[in-house]
Design goal:
The complex is a heterodimer of chains A (759) and B (143). Chain A contains 23 helices and 33 strands. With 759 residues, chain A is an alpha+beta fold. A 6-stranded mixed β-sheet of chain A has the order 10-14-15-13-12-11. A 6-stranded mixed β-sheet of chain A has the order 21-25-26-24-23-22, with helices on one face. In chain A, strands 2-4-5-7-6 form a 5-stranded mixed β-sheet, covered by helices on one side. The longest helix of chain A is centred in the first third of the chain and has 28 residues. The N and C termini of chain A lie far apart (99 Å). Chain B is globular. In chain B, a hairpin with a 2-residue loop joins strand 4 and strand 5. With 143 residues, chain B is mainly beta. In chain B, the strands form 2 sheets. In chain B, strands 8-1-2-10-9 form a 5-stranded mixed β-sheet. Chain B has a 5-stranded mixed β-sheet with strand order 3-6-7-5-4. The longest helix of chain B has 11 residues. Chain B contains 3 helices and 10 strands, in the order βββββαβββαββα. Classes of the chains: A alpha+beta (759), B mainly beta (143). At the A-B interface, helix 6 and helix 17 of A face strand 4, strand 5, strand 7 and helix 3 of B.
């Protein structure tokens, strides 16, 4: 009996959570039969279970709700806001009673009669009135309750440990079997291997859960909060299928609820204020989750009034007059950060939902505790966007395995920007004072020798890893890079932690433990420090977020130029010897085959390698040919105007003017080299002339055509003999009286063409 | 006073006893991965089934001469949720011991004094009872 009861409680609880969004959605669209059915099924199931579990109170409530919903299903009653509120109240009550049964606590039954009365059609009997949100919250489709059981995380951890142990045992077994070389056994062990790997993936996945379980409660939260505050809010949810660690979801719950409440209470204005401000009456709250690498980003955006930072500062000064000077001197960004200070409230009156001055500081602490960050983007009058970024899981990390001396270490993949061979031509290493400085494609980075930091070797090592830290980047010299693995990170013992170099320990399949390097610690141990520069001037950060990233490259004429990064799909190496002209275009051979090339500002190099910046959207893969790519630069300044339409503007970088190429114009040139004047071949011998003369004509800057397209005009027409010439300047080739072929005097023709082209 | 189960071992030729409930298991440590720049008394990390343990060089910690042969017997104990393997010369036995206070006036030296909790008698040989968790913690305290 106890087991049955426990199962009933767990099941009811789970369905309740999934249902709350359904109910609100149903209210917004009462004609939605599917949702009504889902709610009816829930109430019906509860009623049924109560029968044999002997829970009379629950039976009474669920029975009454079932009757009403049945009437709605039969079309006898309309699902108006009052009815929905009453049904919601019953369902809430069912939830409360279930919790009380679980806790073994008594719950008095006063008010239940009122709840039941509210279900009847008499208006005066309604004790609870909530203002209904008008717009449908973004619950996409009715959900069928998933088949699931509840497990403690502890149990999952033990499963995970068991599976890890199994992997090690399998490896050991495989090693020994390899020596015995019995093929039948090998088959068996292969099957075992496969099963174990699958099992490990599954167990890892058991820790993951769709963030939906966090989002499904939001429609109800938004509806109720907005109702109490007499506001109208429409909610849009996106990315509910993003998965992350169960524990992480639990830890995110409180911060999310808090931020959503804040957005509705402080951010979104009353319908009246919104009308006056020229906004739609219903405020908009958009919540979106997405995965970026091994981070999950949750954005909560409202279109309310935003944060009035001036008011924030004055409020703060009121509370702490001693800080007035300091507070007044803060940058806009630092002012916004005041929201996270403990004890702040811009509310003059405390409301039921938020504004007690406890909150955002706790939210930030909670998020940071799980290795996350929280950021605000504030547009006064237009809204506030809160971005929470957390790691995918608490436990699993993608790590690059490197070796130093006889030992191997792991480096978090996320911190490694790039790995280059120390002897590669793109890298230059100089001794500057007592330090080493690496120049990687024009970028200067301090070098940290891992061997020296660990005290294992003095050699620089063959590989350089470019490691990003919050304040800057450095190049880590390591002996070799082995591979990348997804591994479970466990904390190291304090005695090892004391070294200041390690962030955790991992156990790969080999069974030999790995220490995870703490890149910041390694840099600090080598005396490389980036600290405080950014923190002291937080304003600097702001434009960084909004700058335009651009790729700096060395153009064919040796000048540095830039192109917006978004316009470049990828960079392909092109063998210079393969670059040639054909059909009026330039072509080159790259790894993936032949590329069409856009050549401007100079001539293609004859030897070595060039780089093609691949432009998106063309049918033929098309690249803009440059000598080499140099660096990615983010610029924030306004560009100086340019006379050349193909140049978006001029950026002054370190005192040097640099052209920023307009990728749209590059596209124009590509779209048919329309800029080139047309040389029309006319007459019956065009095929022959085209074969013979095309290189000459294109070299002179013309495009060869046998017919003219609509609106096109030939600059020069080549005609043979006395054929009638049609268009533009005409060059006549005499016909050889013996062969009937046109007579070619290429030198004369070239000089005529060059003259016509004005070169 | 009732007898409590203790694990008996020798470190640097001295007999010690560790309360059995502080001992998770006893193992032979095979391969140790170094952890450069950690405390000198940390020999490194080793794997015990699927668990990573921190290997503690007990002789270094107690300022004793290290044994000539590479001793690999260790007592596994959990301190602050971390598994530690405390190396010893030899492991003898598990036996119930009557723990007495330390004989008055006996000066053990500061290293031992910090970890000793009492003494006992084992077949006529005096045995020092030590708190193995405190022994491990001295590494961190010493920084």
């Amino acid at each position: 009996m106890d087991d049955l009861l426990q199962e009933f409680i767990a099941e009811t609880r789970e369905t309740l959570a999934a249902l709350s969004g359904e109910i609100v959605a149903w209210e917004a669209d009462p004609a939605d039969r599917g949702r009504l059915d889902a709610i009816f099924r829930f109430v019906h199931t509860v009623k049924g279970s109560c029968g044999f579990l002997d829970l009379p109170r629950l039976a009474r409530l669920s029975h009454a709700a079932e009757d009403v919903l049945q009437a709605v299903r039969a079309g006898e009653r309309a699902p108006d806001a009052r009815l929905v509120t009453a049904v919601l109240a019953i369902i809430d009550r069912i939830g409360e009673i279930v919790e009380a049964i679980d806790a073994g606590a008594p719950l008095d039954d006063s008010g239940e009669d009122l709840l039941l009365a509210a279900l009847t059609e008499k208006v005066e009997a309604a004790p609870l009135m909530l203002v209904a949100a008008e717009h449908a919250p973004g619950v996409a489709a009715p959900r069928a309750p998933a088949r699931s059981i509840r497990l403690s995380v502890d149990l999952l951890d033990r499963m995970m440990n068991g599976v890890s142990e199994m992997v090690l045992a399998r490896n050991e077994l495989a090693r020994r079997l390899r020596d015995s070389a019995d093929p039948t056994l090998e088959n068996a062990i292969d099957r075992l291997s496969l099963t174990v790997s699958e099992l490990r993936d599954t167990v890892t996945r058991t820790r993951m859960q769709a963030i939906d379980s966090l989002f499904s409660a939001l429609p109800r939260l938004v509806r109720d909060t907005a109702g109490v505050l007499d506001k109208k809010v429409s909610l849009a949810i996106d990315g509910a299928d993003v998965e992350l660690d169960r524990e992480m979801i639990e830890l995110l719950r409180d911060p999310m609820v808090h931020i959503v409440r804040n957005a509705i209470d402080h951010g979104i204005e009353t319908p009246e204020e919104r009308r006056r401000a020229g906004k739609p009456e219903a405020g908009r709250l958009a919540i979106a989750a997405r995965q970026s690498g091994n981070r999950i980003i949750v954005e909560i955006a409202d279109d309310g009034r935003g944060i009035d930072t001036a008011r924030l500062v004055s409020k703060r000064i009121e509370q702490e007059p001693a800080r007035a000077a300091e507070l007044n001197a803060l940058s806009e960004r630092a002012r916004l950060d005041l929201v996270f200070e403990p004890g702040l409230s811009t509310r003059d009156t405390v409301t039921a939902t938020s504004g007690r001055g406890v909150g955002m500081d706790v939210v930030r602490t909670n998020v940071e505790q799980i290795g996350g960050t929280i950021k605000l983007r504030n547009v006064p009058g237009k809204g506030l966007t809160t971005t929470i970024e957390v790691p995918l899981t608490l436990a699993i990390l993608s790590a690059v395995i490197i070796s130093a001396g006889d030992d191997r270490y792991a480096v978090p993949r996320q911190a490694v920007e790039e790995i280059v061979a120390a002897r590669s031509s793109a890298v230059r290493i100089d001794t500057v004072g007592d330090a080493l400085l690496a120049t990687v494609r024009g970028r200067r980075l301090p070098v940290v020798q891992l061997g020296a930091v660990l005290g294992t070797s003095d050699a620089l090592g063959d590989m350089l890893m470019i490691v990003n830290l919050p304040g800057g980047s450095f190049a880590l010299g390591v002996e070799s890079v082995e591979d990348t693995q997804e591994l479970v990170v466990k904390p190291v013992a304090p005695a090892v932690m004391a070294a200041g170099l390690y962030a955790g320990q991992m156990l790969p399949d080999t069974g030999v433990p790995l220490l995870l390097l703490d890149c910041a610690g390694v840099a600090a141990a080598a005396g490389v420090s980036f600290e405080r520069v950014v923190v002291a001037e937080p304003e600097v950060e702001e434009p960084v977020a909004e700058g335009t990233p651009a790729l700096m490259f060395e153009a064919l004429d040796g000048q540095r130029r830039m192109i917006p990064l978004a316009a470049v799909e990828r960079i392909e190496a092109v063998v210079a010897a393969s670059i040639r002209q054909a059909g009026g275009r330039w072509w080159g051979t790259a790894r993936e085959g032949v590329l069409a090339l856009i050549v401007r500002d100079g001539v293609p190099p004859r030897e070595g390698e060039a780089a093609a910046l691949m432009l998106p959207g063309a049918d033929t893969p098309t690249g803009y040919l440059v000598r080499r790519a140099l660096d990615i630069v983010t610029y924030h300044d306004e560009l100086l105007p340019s006379q050349d339409p193909a140049v978006r503007g001029i950026l002054v970088l370190e005192g040097e003017p640099i052209e920023v190429i307009d990728p749209a114009r590059l596209g124009d040139e590509r779209a048919g080299e329309a800029a080139a004047p047309i040389c029309l071949l006319q007459g019956e011998d065009t095929a022959w002339m085209e074969a013979m003369l095309t290189p000459l004509i294109t070299a002179a800057g013309y495009r060869v055509a046998r017919t003219l397209g609509a609106g096109e005009q030939a600059a020069v027409t080549l005609a043979v003999g006395d054929d009638a010439a049609a268009d533009g300047q005409v060059v006549r080739l005499p016909r050889d009286p013996d062969t009937g072929r046109p007579l070619l005097d290429t030198d004369a023709l070239a000089s005529v063409l060059n003259m016509k082209a004005g070169r | 006073m009732s007898a409590v189960l203790h694990l008996l071992a020798h470190v640097g030729g001295r007999a010690i006893a560790v309360p059995a409930d502080a001992v998770e298991s006893v193992v032979d440590i095979t391969k140790v991965v170094r952890a450069p720049r950690a405390h000198p008394a940390v020999r490194g990390l080793a794997t015990l089934r699927s668990r990573v343990v921190t290997v503690v060089d007990t002789w270094r910690l107690l300022d004793l001469p290290a044994p000539d042969d590479e001793s690999c017997r260790a007592i596994i104990t959990v301190v602050d949720g971390h598994h530690h393997a405390v190396l010893v010369d030899t492991l003898e036995d598990v036996a119930p011991l009557d723990v007495q206070p330390l004989p008055p006036g006996l000066s053990l030296g500061w290293r031992w004094a910090a970890v000793a909790t009492g003494s006992a008698d084992r077949d006529g040989e005096p045995v020092l009872v030590i708190d193995i968790a405190r022994l491990v913690e001295t590494i961190v305290a010493a920084g």
